[in-house]
Write a structure and sequence with these properties.
By secondary structure, the chain is an all-alpha fold. The protein has helices at 2-20, 25-38, 43-71, 77-100, 103-124, 143-160, 165-174, 179-207, 221-244, 247-270; strands at 215-216, 219-220. It has a two-stranded antiparallel ribbon.
């Protein structure tokens, strides 16, 4: 029965991720939080389980996304090589940091983050991205600075349960990288983030001896399998539907959804 529930979550998460063009973590984390709460899991581990499991499921979708962008030549591999070590190390350490934060504080942190993403999406529709023209020169920071930036993005990704696209893309476009290549490189960067984050949540969760069935540390095995399988297929359907509907309308609808979920997390964390 649990596996059926997670298959449904995976179908919804994958479709929504493909429809709205954002990482699945922003969908998966809230849904898992609600389901794990209804299953009666310990309150102080629910958020950790949602974050760890979300990162584990994103490993599969990251591979699919990486292959698609690479076929279009949109992955800047030299930049990926500079960012990847910091991303992996930062995300693993970030999982340890998240493990030390209480479930209630994590709810508040993720709630604020979702509201921030919603705000950026509301504003994003009104701005024109000059980097899309490709007329500006790309001058990226030095390798040590890119490594450090990767570490910061990795830590944030573990705490928020995302693959860092909301942070990596703005970082690259800030230095003149065209939007297509920023998105493609961000997709590639999602793989080391997801792998390191999932391993981190498993490792630190096992150290805390999480008393929840069907889990390895802070990763729920049934949820990982169900969501990964379904989201891989339904994301493609969501992407097709997205091309039929208005992108501006989609962004605003998703921003409203994130606002509601963000407020829900803040309410649960404060009450």
């Amino acid at each position: 029965m649990e596996l059926i529930i997670f298959l449904i979550i995976g179908a919804l998460a994958g479709f929504a991720a493909g429809l709205f063009g954002v990482g699945g973590g922003t969908i998966i984390v809230p849904l898992l939080f609600i389901v794990f709460t209804q299953m009666g899991y310990p309150a102080d581990t629910i958020m950790h389980l949602a974050l760890g499991t979300s990162l584990a499921t994103i490993i599969i979708t990251s591979i699919s996304s990486l292959m698609a962008h690479n076929k279009k030549g949109a992955v800047m591999w030299p930049v990926f090589k500079n960012l990847a070590p910091g991303l992996a190390i930062g995300c693993f350490l970030g999982a340890g940091i998240a493990g030390q934060i209480s479930g209630l504080y994590l709810q508040l942190i993720v709630g604020v983050f979702l509201l921030w993403v919603a705000f950026k999406m509301f504003k994003g529709g009104k701005k024109k991205t000059t980097s899309d023209t490709g007329n500006i020169h790309t001058v990226l920071p030095s390798k040590p600075k890119q490594l450090a930036a990767g570490g910061v993005i990795g830590i944030a990704s573990a705490i928020f349960g995302i693959v860092g696209g909301s942070l990596t893309v703005p970082y690259l476009t800030r230095y003149g990288v065209v939007m297509q290549k920023a998105v493609g490189t961000s997709a590639a960067c999602g793989l080391p983030i997801a792998i390191a984050g999932a391993l981190g949540f498993m490792f630190f969760g096992m150290k805390q001896q999480v008393d929840v069935p069907n889990t390895i540390g802070f990763v729920h095995i049934y949820a990982f399998l169900g969501i990964s399988i379904m989201s891989f297929f339904t994301a493609k359907i969501g992407a097709k539907v997205a091309h039929i509907l208005s992108p501006q309308l989609l962004k605003k609808c998703f921003a409203v959804l994130l606002t509601i979920v963000g407020c829900y997390f803040l309410y649960k964390g404060l009450v």
